[in-house]
């Protein structure tokens, strides 16, 4: 009891009196030009980030406010009779993905749909052994394999990769017979019932808007593989539940995600077809189609499992491609959206959607200014920090945690509370992506063209499995070292905050330390311990055809 009283008198109480009750130096601070040059950009960045943070709250509000507008595969406007089911083409674009192509094709060949109104196109742009692997697999299923009769599957190989994925999809359309086009990336495993759950949404009903595209929700084959894949799953769940759910229920524009969705062929043609001047050809086509008046539908209750990246550099490559592609699409499409006849709230949501990644360069600016701004603000007084800085920090950062908590509660109502364990690392990972995504965003803003960098897939689903990953593993050059150095800078700011007894800023600063050190270290160390068998059996995935 005496120890507690002493701590209360000489710990928290002394700290509060010395920092917030002592007015000895109250009028000694004088504003100067240096403070102006530091604080103007600091607050400008904070206000912009706060607006994007508030927008996350708005998406949550739209999701719940328009719950009655949620679409379901169980209640389409009408249903096709079996005799009138439309012809469907399933397109499978792949590029150097020998580990997963057999799993993908097997799943698609087992989809429940009449075979006289169904075809599969394996669109192969590969430049390695995948071409031989894929051709053999297609031949096997075309002849009948794995308990299946001969399947209507076709192998289309290009040698020039013109237009990358968009070019491959466009090339496939030239010979496609389908009125409807379903698309699955190489790391997806569509369930047998997927097509029959989606197809009836395209039944045309008088008085109802014609559906141009249906997007389904991604789930995760290897969610439990590692802590990283758990965090990635939460990030994607937030996108598919609250972003897609909120936008689709509110009737504003949202995008096809490049896979696990189905298009009406007429919609693609009327919107101008697949174009490859951005790295997110799916979002580009989505906005062009919706500007033409086509209605999109999102089915949250239709799931399509896929493989998450298991390595940090693969995840960063994926995120950088999406970040750059969205900014490219924003530059291309936003002027058309703003000049269109769409409602103002649709235009505003499109602006937030397509410009959201501008927050990454702003985070770099904030990282640079945070330390001097913290010193200046501490001299100016705690009341200003409490009334101005704290609300801005809460709007820009706390919205992230609440956003993903809500999405997990919607998907996992019995276990959602476990998400609290991952929240600090989720927020730290967002900080750690700043360097690579800032580079991607600046390339998009300044028109720097780069190749379509695919995300490596290794067909790793369970703990203990390791792919023969060296073939596709990529390094990020000097970027991880920069991340480690920036992490050291923020570690120094934590030390300074402790020394100056500015304890309220320490949790926020620690997120920067954790984020930069984690992404940097994992990027450098990935694969270094693959040869170590630490109490687990190593399962190496060979080439599927023994090549």
Topology:
Blueprint: H1 2-21, H2 33-65, E1 88-94, H3 101-109, E2 118-124, H4 130-143, E3 153-157, H5 164-173, E4 180-183, H6 194-199, E5 211-220, H7 227-250, E6 261-264, H8 265-270, H9 281-291, E7 295-306, H10 312-339, H11 344-355, H12 359-380, H13 382-411, H14 419-432, H15 434-445, E8 465-467, H16 479-499, H17 506-525, E9 539-541
Parallel strand pairs: 1-2, 1-4, 2-3, 5-7, 8-9
Antiparallel strand pairs: 4-6, 5-6
Helix pairs in contact: 2-7, 2-12, 2-13, 3-4, 7-13, 7-14, 9-10, 10-11, 10-15, 12-15, 13-14, 14-17, 16-17
GO molecular function: glycosyltransferase activity
Protein name: Glycosyl transferase family 2
Transmembrane segments: 39-64, 358-376, 382-407, 419-435, 478-498, 504-525
**What does the largest sheet look like?**
7 strands, mixed
Shape: globular
Query: What is the succession of H and E elements?
Result: HHEHEHEHEHEHEHHEHHHHHHEHHE
> What is the average per-residue confidence, as pLDDT, rounded to a whole number?
86
